[in-house]
Design goal:
The protein is α/β, with parallel strands linked by helices. The protein has helices at about 10-35, 45-55, 85-95, 120-135, 195, 210-220; strands at about 5-10, 35-40, 70, 75, 145-150, 175-180, 190, 200-205, 235-245. The protein has one domain (about 5-225): Rossmann fold (3-Layer(aba) Sandwich), CATH 3.40.50. It is about 25% helix and about 15% strand. The longest helix is centred in the N-terminal third of the chain and has 23 residues, at about 10-35. The radius of gyration is 17 Å and the shape is globular. About 50% of the residues are buried.
Length: about 260
């Protein structure tokens, strides 16, 4: 487990641009060291803001897009192409404008796909795809992702792991179906905490006043069942990328106010 580190930016636009620059560097470094890179994308406002900033960054062309595997931390279980699907939003924000290898874009299944309404079967299929991509060096049933990004919801949810729901208690499976999510749509697919923790680096993104309480709770010693964001950390690094509004309720011991 890595101790969380906080980076607080002035506003959400700057946070998205800085996070995009950080991601470009990480991907290029991983491709230089290992030949390929693997990144887990998140949905939500901040995840999509980062992807849009990446699309607009001239340095995006430093990435070898054909040697990048993209996975998702969660998906809303809706038909292919639905505007509320995380993958649809990621395509619009970035993926349609860069030369990714479609074989390496690992979208989670859609509700009109081969598994139909059976979200458990869809989750199992995604777990199998992850397991196939994991090598013996990965010590588990998922690849060691270079970077796994998570938006933090106002209720402290990450991916589709909502407080107190069964998915956040999962300790064996890497991917689960989620029923009765409090945020629509109620049916979703999510990586579990054990799968999230297999990543080298986990980056939690939160911007805006409505995230301030969640950020403060998750970073002040809350349990992961009550505050799923508290249980999200990477093997080597856990980074909380915030704007000043989202950091506003943090205790002074974690984020002292700037000097006058
Ligand atoms: O529904 C979801 O919400 C979270 C957070 O989204 P935000 O808009 O409040 O930032 C997101 O991380 C997750 O991927 C998504 O499915």
């Amino acid at each position: 487990m890595s101790t969380p580190q906080l980076v607080v930016h002035h506003d959400k636009e700057l946070m998205a641009q800085a996070a995009a620059a950080r991601l470009i560097t990480k991907i290029v470094d991983a491709q230089t060291s290992r030949g390929t890179a693997s990144v887990v994308l998140t949905g939500g406002r901040n995840g999509n803001g980062l992807l849009a900033a990446l699309a607009a960054a001239p340095a995006r062309d430093a990435i070898d897009w054909g040697r990048l595997d993209l996975w998702w931390g969660d998906e809303r279980y809706l038909p292919e192409g639905d505007p509320e699907r995380n993958v649809t939003q990621a395509r619009e924000a970035l993926l349609d404008s860069v030369p990714v290898d479609p074989e390496r874009v690992h979208a989670m299944p859609a509700s009109d796909g081969p598994h139909g309404a059976d979200v458990e079967a869809a989750a199992e299929a995604y777990a199998a795809e992850l397991a196939k991509a994991a090598g013996p060096e990965n010590h588990g049933a998922v690849p060691t992702f270079d970077v796994l990004m998570l938006g933090v919801g106002p209720d402290t949810h990450v991916a589709s792991l909502f407080p107190e729901l069964p998915a956040v208690r999962e300790t064996e499976r890497t991917v689960v179906g989620v029923h009765g999510a409090p945020k629509p749509p109620p049916t979703r697919i999510s990586l579990t905490l054990p799968a999230i923790r297999a990543a080298r680096e986990v980056w939690l993104l939160a911007a805006g006043e409505d995230k301030a309480e969640a950020v403060a709770i998750a970073l002040s010693g809350a349990g992961e069942i009550q505050a799923p964001a508290a249980g999200a950390y990477g093997r080597a690094r856990t980074l909380w990328l915030l704007d000043s509004a989202a950091a506003a309720q943090l205790p002074r011991s974690l984020y002292p106010p700037a000097s006058p």
